Amino acid sequence: MKGLRLIEFRIDRRSGVATYLQLVHQVKQALRLGLLGPGDRLPTAREVVEQTAINPNTVLKAYRELEREGLVEPRPGLGTFVRRSLVTPGVAEDSPLRGDLLEWMERARGYGMGREDVEALFRSVLDQRF
Amino acid sequence: MSVAVLARGLGLRRRRGEASRDCSFELAAGRVAALVGANGAGKSTLLKVLAGLLRPAAGVVEVTGEVGFVAQEKPLYRSFTVAETLRFGRVANPGWDADRADRLVEEAGLPREARVTRLSGGQRARLAVVVALARRPDVLLLDEPLSEMDPVARQETLRAIMVAVAETGMTVVLSSPVMGELEGVCDHLLLLDDGAVRLACDVETLLADHRIVVAPLGADFGAHRVVETREGERQVTAMLRVTPGLDLPAGLVSEPSLDEVVVAHLRRAGVAA
């Protein structure tokens, strides 16, 4: 039986970011949002290639990088599996932080701010703090 | 990592004069190399030498394992139908992958009962690639396989080749006049100019090694190798091959795309010749 893929990769060929790094970022993003968690199997190189038409060596390089960071582990003959989650309590669907942010966004909308305005403000405060 | 393709002191006949002799490179098994160069640079000649169809003017090449070669003129039996071409492939090749052949012919929407002469150039090219993949070579050499294809066919063909690489670990060399859509597909670059390999290296290493710097006119780029410069009234834009461990010159520094690196090296080679 062919299961549904747990993660769909999207390659932006014009982004200027190396393809393997795009894969690394997308896996981490999925780990942060809890879309992927411990024990989940990443798609095989062949599956990613079928989906994106990129070089399989690039996929393997991305997985090696994730392994180096301790996020995934290869199990010979079985595939590459997630070792640890990157979900922080604040990310959960029902977390107070998310609620606050939702409320804040509503207020921003109330001020007539568009997506780009919100992004600019958010990024500027983000850069101040982190 | 074992070596799939090795060339040492290889000489290809030049358009004028002596054959070059400075052509040495190796390609590890499982790599996908783009062979890029201007028309007449010797891409087809090099591929024919690697395929064992031409003897080099000098030097040696070693290719490990079964070699598959799709020449630019897409060698197929013109009077065969698509179905007959596949049947012949199965009879003539013990390792024939009938499943793959059927799947790819299906995906390409090639009419099975059509004769090869009736197919468009793009369809013939696809059929030639299908036959080459179904033969399951260890090393696949493709001479401008995409040139006659439409954008969808190009994408599907590259995908089919990449899937085969993922499944079998085969090594691929494919030639093209430009990098274009090969960016993201190839992990190795062979840059050919006037019968000589000017660059032979890993794509990511190549990108990491190059920077574009915009600096005031007369700027000193130190020990970095200048690939190309373009001078404006007050500023100079330079493509540098960076010497590791040294600071970059002051100025606006950016990372070039693979296409930019390739074009700069091709232009430089053109100037040198």
List the helices and strands and how they pair.
The complex is a heterodimer of chains A (130) and B (273).
Chain A: H1 19-32, H2 45-52, H3 56-68, E1 72-75, E2 79-82, H4 96-110, H5 115-129
Antiparallel strand pairs in A: 1-2
Helix pairs in contact in A: 1-3, 2-3
Chain B: E1 3-11, E2 23-28, E3 32-36, H1 43-50, E4 58-63, E5 67-70, H2 82-92, H3 98-108, H4 121-134, E6 139-142, H5 151-168, E7 171-176, E8 188-193, E9 196-202, H6 203-209, E10 210-216, E11 225-231, E12 235-241, E13 252-254, H7 258-272
Parallel strand pairs in B: 3-7, 3-8, 5-6, 6-7
Antiparallel strand pairs in B: 1-2, 1-4, 8-9, 10-12, 10-13, 11-12
Helix pairs in contact in B: 3-4, 4-5
Describe the protein:
The complex is a heterodimer of chains A (130) and B (273). Helices cover 50% and strands 6% of the residues of chain A. Chain A has 5 helices and 2 strands. A two-stranded antiparallel ribbon of chain A has the order 1-2. In chain A, helix 1 packs across helix 3 (56-68) and helix 2 (45-52) packs across helix 3 (56-68). The longest helix of chain A is centred in the C-terminal third of the chain and has 15 residues, at 96-110. The mean pLDDT of chain A is 89. Chain B is an alpha/beta fold and 273 residues long. In chain B, 31% of the residues lie in helices and 28% in strands. Chain B has 7 helices and 13 strands. Chain B is elongated and about 65 Å long. Chain A binds chain B through residues 11, 13, 16, 18-20, 44-46, 49-50, 53-59, and chain B through 30-32, 155, 158-159, 162-163, 165-167, 183-187, 204, 207, 255, 257.
Give the termini separation of chain A. Answer: 45 Å
Oligomer: heterodimer
Unreliable stretches covering 5 or more consecutive residues of chain A: none
Rg result of chain A: 18 Å
- As laid out across the biggest beta sheet of chain A, the strand order is 1-2
Low-confidence stretches of chain B: none
Shape of chain B: elongated
The major sheet of chain B is characterized as: 6 strands, mixed
Distance between the termini of chain B: 35 Å
Return the structural class of chain A.
Answer: mainly alpha
What's the β-strand tally of chain A?
2
Helix percentage range of chain A: 40-55%
| Number of helical stretches of at least 4 residues of chain A | 5
The percent range for strand residues of chain A is 5-15%
Radius of gyration of chain B: 21 Å
Mean pLDDT figure of chain B? 89
